[in-house]
Amino acid sequence: MKLATLDTPAALVDEACLQRNIARMQRQVSGLGPRLRPHVKTTKCVAVAEQQRAAGGTGITVSTLREAEAFFDAGFDDILYAVGIVPAKLPAVKALRARGCRLIVILDSLAAAQAVVQAGPGLEVMIEIDTDGHRAGIAPDAPLLLDVARTLHNGGAVLVGVMTHAGASYDCRTHEALQAMAEQERSRCVAAAERIRTAGIPCPEVSVGSTPTALSARHLAGVTEVRAGVYAFNDLVMHGVGVCGLGDIALSVLTTVIGHHGTWMLVDAGWMAMSRDRGTAGHALDFGYGAVCDEAGQPIEGLVMGSANQEHGLISWREGFDGGSLERRFPLGTRLRVLPNHACATAAQFQHYEVLKAGGSITRWPRFNGW
Amino acid sequence: MKLATLDTPAALVDEACLQRNIARMQRQVSGLGPRLRPHVKTTKCVAVAEQQRAAGGTGITVSTLREAEAFFDAGFDDILYAVGIVPAKLPAVKALRARGCRLIVILDSLAAAQAVVQAGPGLEVMIEIDTDGHRAGIAPDAPLLLDVARTLHNGGAVLVGVMTHAGASYDCRTHEALQAMAEQERSRCVAAAERIRTAGIPCPEVSVGSTPTALSARHLAGVTEVRAGVYAFNDLVMHGVGVCGLGDIALSVLTTVIGHHGTWMLVDAGWMAMSRDRGTAGHALDFGYGAVCDEAGQPIEGLVMGSANQEHGLISWREGFDGGSLERRFPLGTRLRVLPNHACATAAQFQHYEVLKAGGSITRWPRFNGW
Hints:
Number of strands of chain A: 17
Number of helices of chain A: 12
Strand order of the largest sheet of chain A: 2-9-8-7-6-5-4-3
Structural class of chain A: alpha/beta
Shape of chain A: elongated
Oligomer: homodimer
Distance between the termini of chain A: 31 Å
Largest sheet of chain A: 8 strands, parallel
């Protein structure tokens, strides 16, 4: 199979770019000291996770128990399930552990800690720390932190450590702001671990991460592990945040021009292929549903997918930019690539990746979805 | 399996509601005269399409060749592929027709008409008409219309008729505006057919449709077929447009409360489950990522999913509404249903539906995704 004969729409992965992205993050994190535990929620693809492991990654992070099960079946046996655990999901956690999987859960409440303790001894747990007010976690200085740590420790659970995710880094727009956010994420999470240790409770691990903070941190003193996911593919949001160039985006949607109408042309990649993610809507440069490249992957200046229906993408020149007649330049049947706003969301619209190898051949890698 | 023991998140379908929705649309369209050709892109589920057929639906509409293939394999042999055809997809169209499937394609350009003619005689085609300036199609009064019709007719293709989709109806907010849009869709599509017939070219079918216009039309003189899809499930966008109530939404996402933080609570349905669709963002009542109901499906006034990460939904009271402490009212482990903005998008995040039968039991219906 060659690029020119792939059916469209297709999720195309440039393998050389993917490998550069994986190497860059591993080099950055290893250079600062911690281990890297890649988050596989972006790619949900065993072949990608194997490349991340080969590059030096230690264990994986998952966002669903379905991911944990699928990756354990594929030979990954050190897994952090990084979404707050609830009582109803503990039987599935215990079943995976009984099969030999090291599966660590996270929590941020006494109710969840009590449920974990009641589920039986030896479950491995990290306490989620709030370092940015973004979503979840216990504040590093909250009394609740030690109550939860004691409940776990005294109740027979294994407190592996503390973890945080500075999701607020996605709102940073300058390198200085990213560096400051990385330092805030690091220092607050380390402080939480220190409080627990000072109280006499072992708390060996300090796990932090997001792609923007991981790529921006100047030092990671006290951190033992970094988690990040989207860096493998990168996307227009990461480009807007300032941590990658357009040429570092490994995932694109291959599409075909199916018509011309008014000031736009239609392609067969609509929101079902791109996802409904409008992650660059608040950015200085709004890419609509995606930035348009030619079939070889070269960005076409000024051309964006401004809107989308289920199976129709509407592509036009940016306001104020005139690149000439779309119908003449991109006649019916022209093939294009569209770079996604958010790789996690776009990838999830597909069942497999079409992987463009360095030599020009195409290999298909399955991914999975659902829960 | 019972509702109380389903893993979350899950795509829950209330079968009684689904059946009411199917019956309502069939009654409306049959009452006005035309056939109803359900669009299966919303549900992508054979069991639902079988119920639509049993209710009186004639043939189906699809948005991808993958849908055409899957539904033909399941016994549906009269299919309209309602996305503009391109040369590269004609071999797959011919292959399906060779297997005995009546597969009709659509187009709106001379280039596509010439490609269809060159692909060999007898292909069945509809010309797409632009009745609302929304996306695609040829204007009813454009010279191009007769050029395309002649190219097809003289070239040996079978011109089945004309078709249109008044996507602009989604922007209507009053019953009067919807009625006017339905009449515009009808009258302009009929006018296009009349022009072709006046030129001496047979044009038997006039196919129109969108859920809002189909449910609002007062008469459909000259129309032979109506297409609609989302009516089977309905959603918050249809509610905002004014063609259904909250109690008419058959699809919801079953979810579990996994934490409390600040002014919100977290559930295990994030945008991966709800989709990134923010279809009510421009409505008088913005539901964020979804309207929240209790586990039994009763809407909880003032409670919305205001934001979402991949596997985290953040639910809070609407600004200005105070429903009390979320932690006390909805403790860890509480199960809720979230009504989606856009059923087509939310359903596509799942591999199957958990169907709640009238008696309370749960049946699983597969759906499919991809291309």
